[in-house]
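cron nightly-structures :: item 1 of 1
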Amino acid sequence: MNPFLITDNTAISFSGGRTSAYLLWKVLQENKGLPDCARVLFCNTGKEDEATLDFIHACETKWNVPIVWLEYRPDSKFEVVDYESASRWGEPFEYIIQHRKMLPNTRARFCTVELKIRTMRRYLQSLGWEEWDNMIGIRADEQRRAVKMKPDHKSETPVMPLYSAGVQKSEVLEFWENNDFDLQLPVVNGETIGGNCDLCFLKALPKILTL
């Protein structure tokens, strides 16, 4: 079965990186557009590089695909924003830090859980969804990540089409090298170290110093 075909409620988790964007492109190609039962979701923490936001906006405009921009809110739990209104100064992080009264760390990664995973789930539940596939951009060369992937909630079923299709990092990079637009963040030793939240505590010290 084609792993990119969508027939049931599916959330496409879009991080704003090259791999997740390539996953979205494959979905659009194989389904001849975005199916009605699918939603492309980007959860903005306010600490992404501006180049990431520009790249996401380019994907939604050049590919004519609706991307739902979400942000955590302590009262309503989420808010739908867009490229223009998205936070740029870490406001969602500030909200969750004030709520938890502590900083996220390697032992308590509530930043990812609250700002992304649960924010996405609350949005989908607001649509009346009770169960859905959570499509994640994990490649075949990321086996360690793939085997650790488990559902965060009983309503979600993780699916990894790139992993199932045997897609490697080289294929993703080749696609963007030949595309008419790309993420304007450099690749250093095969990694886009400027991706995800800037100065994240999970980045190695040399990467933080480089940034």
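cron nightly-structures :: done
The chain has one domain: 10-184.
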